[in-house]
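Note to self: keep these together.
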Amino acid sequence: MTSGTRRGILRPLAALLFPPGPQGPGGPHGVLPPLLVVLTFVSGVVDAVSYLGLDHAFVANMTGNVVFLGLALAGDRTLSAPATLLALGAFVVGAGAAGRLLPGGTAERAFGPLVAVQALLVSAALAMTAGGTGQLAVVALLALGMGLQNAVVHRLGVPDLTTTVVTRTLTGLAADPWGAASVRRLVSVGALVCGALSGGLLMLRHGSRWALLAAVALLVWVAVLGWWRRTELSPAAPPGGR
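Structure:
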């Protein structure tokens, strides 16, 4: 696929989420927004795998894990306090590690490489699943990768595209007047729902391997585009960047 073809796909999608304004035709966040939508879809996929197949623990949405931890400690036998604690801990470690690697103003340049690291972690989880390794190790790898993802997305600071948390997004969608922000909020929520639906269908019908394989493929695609188009991930990108 040529650079021109990719530009024809990513730029209109970015303009749909963030209509161009005084900052130029590229929008305030370059071609980054559609890539974040794909990461939101991936979050839904991996959470479907972890909830349905890994002791009902989330690896992407930590709000749910905090609630699950309280319920597990209260005595709910369908939930696992060790798995939930491990997911929380690995997520924090991943986010902390990424934060140390992201000094101010470097998130756009580090986006592609960090998503590539996340793809490697999910690939390792896939290999362990195929090899029948214990579930807790898979939980740790997936949560570690999601911590990396959330840290870089946090540093990027793209409005309404956090890739995991939709509570505030839904609040803004309901409370604020309809506008451009409403479109990206709908897209964000829809991407998470579609990711969970797709991951759930793959998980229930074919097992976790196919769901994790789909997540790896999408992460590799985002990482390659994030690296190749790194000069177009910010408002300072030149119109004719790579």
